[in-house]
Design a protein that fits this description.
By secondary structure, the chain is of the alpha+beta class. The chain is built from three helices and four strands; from the N terminus they run H-E-E-E-E-H-H. It has a four-stranded antiparallel sheet. The longest helix is centred in the middle third of the chain and has 34 residues, at 50-83. The protein is rod-shaped. The mean pLDDT is 83.
């Protein structure tokens, strides 16, 4: 079987599939995955389009951002609760003290 004149390691048919149809096997931690056309294909055949990948990455970033905000808000609320004092005053007593008996 003749090899590709350009890369010297794949057949002409493999080179054609890689260049024209973007059918490429991946290596290293992505072993078993491949590119096929515009999609990333998992070893089990699940296809992930670029738009879907952007959506997944956006959701992961949004969830991480939300978790950081919740952590900041929880720490702020904990500090705020220590500084608040609640005083219960009978309204009639308060009026008498500040305005005298003529305000009632």
């Amino acid at each position: 079987m003749p090899t590709c004149w350009h890369c010297k390691s794949e057949s002409s048919a493999e080179h054609y599939d890689r260049v024209v149809h973007n059918i490429t096997s991946l290596h290293g931690p992505w072993a078993g995955w491949r590119l096929a056309g515009k999609d990333l294909v998992a070893p089990d055949g699940t296809r992930v389009s670029p738009a879907r990948m952007r959506g997944i990455l956006f959701r992961l970033e949004a969830e991480a951002r939300l978790e950081r905000a919740r952590g900041r808000n929880a720490s702020r609320k904990a500090v705020r609760r220590e500084l608040v004092k609640v005083v219960v005053v009978d309204l009639d007593d308060w009026r008498r003290r500040h305005f005298g008996t003529s305000a009632a």
